[in-house]
Design a protein that fits this description.
The protein is an alpha+beta fold and about 70 residues long. It is about 30% helix and about 25% strand. Strands 3-2-1-4 form a four-stranded mixed β-sheet. A hairpin with a 4-residue loop joins strand 2 and strand 3. The mean pLDDT is about 85.
């Protein structure tokens, strides 16, 4: 499982590469990796919320974002 951690300041941290990521980076991860999980600072799974943020960020192309 590929884990991204979201801190309280809304920054997203890739625990595999030890680097901060943005929504465009997450879009690429969601498209290319089969099992990406996003957790908050308390360990709660917020993957769905973050996926919605990625879609909203690409709203003009939302119909083909995961094609």
């Amino acid at each position: 499982m590929y884990t991204i951690k979201r801190y309280s300041n809304r920054k997203l941290y890739n625990t595999e590469t030890s680097k901060y990521v943005n929504l465009n980076d997450l879009e690429t991860l969601f498209r290319t990796l089969p099992d990406v999980k996003v957790i908050d600072e308390n360990g709660n799974d917020i993957t769905g919320k973050v996926m919605l943020s990625v879609i909203a960020n690409k709203k003009e192309n939302a119909e083909d974002i995961f094609a």
